[in-house]
Amino acid sequence: MLQSLHVKNLALMEETEVEFGRGLNILTGETGAGKSLLIGSVNLALGGKFEREMLRKGKESALVELVFSTSDERVRSKLLQLELESEDDGTVIISRKMQVGKSVYKVNGETVTARQVKELAELLIDIHGQHEHQSLLNKKKHMEILDAYSGEEFLRAAEEVEGAYKVCREITRTLEEEAMDEEEKAREQALAEFELQEIEQARLVPGEDEELEKRYRLMVNGKRIAENLTESYQYTGNDFEGGAGIALSRALRALRSVSTLDDTLGDMEEQLSEIDSLLADYNRDLAAYMVDLEFDSEDFDAVEERLNLLNRLKEKYGASIEAVLAYGEERAKLLEKISDYDAYMKQLEEKLAAARKKLEEACAILSDIRRKNAEVLTKLLKEALIHLNFLTVEFKIEVRRASGITARGYDDVEFLISTNPGETLKPLGQVASGGELSRVMLAIKTVLAGRDDIDTLIFDEIDTGISGRTAWRVSEQLDTVAHAHQVLCITHLPQIAAMADRHFVIEKSSSQDNTITDIRVLEEEESLGELARLLGSDALTEAALSNAREMRIQAASHKKVGEKSS
Hints:
about 575 residues; six-stranded mixed beta sheet
């Protein structure tokens, strides 16, 4: 659940921290106090769009921090997948520091990306914004809701459809790319034959270019190398009067004439003798290298010509000899394909037909699962709608075959409703008002909550367009959801506020040059006063407080019934 929210320097919030509890957390406040700022700050922490105007006046940065506690293994697995620290007690801390043009996200103290935060948030919290019910006007949303209800069996079938669809799409793309008329075939064949012949005639050997380049460098710099090596040979040999070899031999003879007079001199003689041997070895190796260095102009021309050929082929067909050879293999395959083009295309068409058949079968299985779950979900949603004061409602989830096939199958899903006796079922968008759409969305959230592992649900003014008895029904439904989930609900209706397990008020205060919005939890008497305000009372009269107490008693009565039934 969401344990706490910490906000600093965001809009009218200077710095505030609020701790939420389990069950139904209700937030109320005067119009304009900043109730929606709560949802806005949570959305910002989870990757929502930040704009300069959201910063508190005179501040350079803002901070939002959410602290969750969870025992959900999916969250722990996601943290491991994202290579993030996982706390033993299940605490997950998500924060975002915002500056103009820059944001820093952190999870449990480690810097992360916005995408990683969103992936994690999908397992922790579900936010129902003020206008989310409007999404029900889009049929695409209807399919999403049905699919979300349909469980593991559906997910497996949906994966089969998606995989089969991708196979069909790839084969179709190949067919389109490979389609050629006779003139194009002839042109491709002539080009492929020329290129393959050029590559085969070169008799390429992997690594050959590197060896040739090494030899070529030696040949190009041969004269300079030879001159310097000759000089080195002279100065280290015994043929040049000033050479190190002659000087070293003389030094060795001089030392030997006295080495028998002292043991230390004997050791020094041995060292000098070893140096003399090393120098002689070096001189011999140098002489051998100089012999190998000799080459004639014909050899140089042959190496240069071969290198030019290899480099020309690499410029045309690939960056390396291996790449050129691979290109040649592709050309050979193309020639083989063109030589039996009709058979090749027929094979592709047969492959596509088989893939389409498999896709059709997978779609049929998926459609059956959708239809089966549509019947169950229709019944559950109708019951939830009746509980939300749709007393004569008829509701149906219609699953019909669409004109084409997508990665989600061949179904078209639409919610149909009738709210008056005798009226035929019509698409939701043609019948329902804003308040009715809001209740339909609450019914959906209530039903899906039974299958949803997300612990925290936030509702921002779910009570749009309702009042009276209907408001009590919405309140009772929220309490039902709160038995299995932590619910945060922003409302302006006393019937919903009366059902609170924990009641918060959002207040705005102003001084001469400063305006601040704050959130605080209410004690019982303060909650009664806030209920009286929501009931329309300008003053906390005993009559207004009495009405508020009656509402709390009625809400408590429902809660007791709910506890017994659960």
